[in-house]
């Protein structure tokens, strides 16, 4: 006998995942995790018996419910389903999957669509911070087609503008959790930063790299991966994240001078596979650090003028634009606001099927 659970499949930004109403999933945490794993087809490197795409970026879950918080429409919990292990993690947030949360909330009647445009306020449970999404809703229906493009996704779609509130330090307690813009680990200068995603930045040059290596070249370089993982395990406690061996944070980001006129170039280990692009909140963290004196990357970043900066964080398939507005107080390093543009698309709606354990 198969169990069924109502489910929608969305592409959110450059990621893809299954989206559920909280009430539709089993209430028991063990049964819930089992359902999420089996529907995705984990553990299996190919996820062949499930809907997962055999990569961390396509093995993601959003669980959404109507919020009881004042001024907030919905609560969103992000779950990373590990591809090749029977394990899920809520230790990180995901700004790409977030892009589908507003459309999902409207499609499921959690938020009443307005004519033309609907603002959805989302409480992101993983990091206890807020995102405001502006979704095009002509005739009170979510519009998915449009003229906006994001690097890493073919074609054009309707834009979803997302503004983040209170994301600085949301996982690590402060923007620079060690109190320094840069520290030294294993003889290498590193920057530990959290503007919505815990990120460790290391200059490509200090790793003997150019910074524009192909994803496969980095993933096949075991000595490099071991070095980066050794640093990552040391940064966990320093970033107030504890033992990160089994966690998907911090993200290890190699930075180098921009190649195409952007702010900075990146290759991001998330934390073991290399991202095809860069995470949304990871880019938000990189953008703030790279524009802060003393941080790794500051010296070679091409920093836009002004207090409101549109920063193009370059990645293997293009660039991700992050707008950061500096605080009026020059001593305050956390930005006043962080905003990005994404697109999302409903791919499938129906029931997910899985065979429960005996
Ligand atoms: O940093 C992948 C993604 C992400 C995270 C990851 C993300 C973010 O691209 O906000 O979006 O870093 O595991 O989906």
Textual characterization of the structure:
The protein is α+β, with helices and mostly antiparallel strands and 358 residues long. It has a 17-stranded mixed sheet that branches. The longest helix has 17 residues. The protein is globular. The termini are close together. Bound molecules: (1E)-4-oxobut-1-ene-1,2,4-tricarboxylic acid.
Find the CATH superfamily of the largest domain: Diaminopimelate Epimerase, Chain A, domain 1
As for the CATH topology of the largest domain, it is: Diaminopimelate Epimerase, Chain A, domain 1
Succession of helices and strands: EEHEEEHHEEEEEEHHEEHEEEE
The proportion of residues in beta strands is: 25-35%
Radius of gyration: 20 Å
Class of the largest domain, according to the CATH hierarchy? Alpha Beta
Q: Determine the mean pLDDT.
A: 97
Ends distance: 10 Å
Count of discrete structural domains? 2
Please give the share of residues in helix: 10-25%
Got a strand count? Answer: 17
Architecture per CATH nomenclature, i.e. the level-2 architecture of the largest domain: Roll
Shape: globular
User: Can you tell me the residue ranges where pLDDT is under 50 for at least 5 consecutive residues?
Assistant: none
Query: What small molecules does the structure contain?
Result: (1E)-4-oxobut-1-ene-1,2,4-tricarboxylic acid
List the SSEs and their pairings.
Layout: E1 3-12, E2 15-21, H1 29-40, E3 60-66, E4 74-81, E5 88-89, H2 95-98, H3 101-107, E6 116-124, E7 129-137, E8 160-165, E9 183-185, E10 188-194, E11 198-203, H4 215-219, H5 222-238, E12 251-256, E13 264-269, H6 280-290, E14 308-315, E15 318-325, E16 337-342, E17 344-354
Parallel strand pairs: 2-3, 4-6, 11-12, 13-14
Antiparallel strand pairs: 1-2, 1-17, 3-4, 4-5, 6-7, 7-8, 8-16, 9-10, 10-11, 12-13, 14-15, 15-16
The chain binds (1E)-4-oxobut-1-ene-1,2,4-tricarboxylic acid (NQM).
């Amino acid at each position: 006998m198969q169990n069924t659970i109502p489910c929608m499949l969305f592409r959110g930004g450059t990621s893809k995942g299954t989206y559920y109403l909280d009430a539709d999933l089993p209430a028991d945490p063990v049964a819930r995790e089992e359902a999420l794993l089996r529907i995705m087809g984990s553990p299996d490197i190919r996820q062949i018996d499930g809907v997962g795409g055999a990569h961390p970026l396509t093995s993601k879950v959003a669980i959404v419910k109507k919020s009881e918080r004042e001024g907030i429409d919905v609560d969103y919990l992000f779950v990373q389903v590990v591809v090749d292990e029977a394990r899920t993690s809520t230790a990180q947030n995901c700004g790409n999957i977030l892009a589908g949360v507003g459309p999902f909330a409207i499609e499921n009647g959690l938020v009443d669509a307005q004519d033309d445009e609907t603002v959805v306020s989302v409480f992101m449970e993983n990091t206890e911070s807020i995102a405001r999404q502006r979704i095009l809703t002509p005739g009170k229906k979510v519009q998915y087609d449009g003229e906006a493009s994001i690097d890493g996704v073919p074609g054009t779609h309707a834009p979803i503008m997302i503004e983040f509130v209170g994301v600085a330090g949301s996982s690590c307690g402060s923007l620079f959790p060690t109190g320094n813009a840069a520290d030294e680990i294993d003889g290498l200068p590193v920057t530990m930063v959290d503007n919505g995603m815990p990120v460790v930045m290391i200059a490509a040059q200090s790793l003997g790299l150019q910074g524009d290596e192909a994803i496969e070249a980095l993933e096949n370089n075991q000595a490099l991966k071991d070095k980066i993982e050794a640093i990552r395990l040391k940064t966990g406690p320093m970033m107030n994240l504890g033992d990160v061996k089994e966690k998907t944070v911090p993200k290890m980001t190699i930075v180098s001078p921009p190649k195409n006129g952007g702010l900075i170039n990146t290759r991001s280990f998330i934390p073991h596979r290399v991202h095809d692009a860069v995470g949304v909140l990871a880019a938000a963290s990189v953008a703030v650090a790279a524009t802060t004196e003393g941080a790794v990357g500051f010296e070679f970043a091409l920093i836009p003028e002004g207090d409101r900066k549109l920063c193009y964080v370059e990645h293997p398939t293009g660039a991700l634009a992050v707008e950061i507005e500096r605080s009026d107080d020059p001593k305050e390093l956390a930005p006043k606001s962080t905003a990005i543009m994404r697109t999302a698309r409903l791919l499938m709606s129906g029931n997910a099927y899985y065979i429960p354990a005996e």
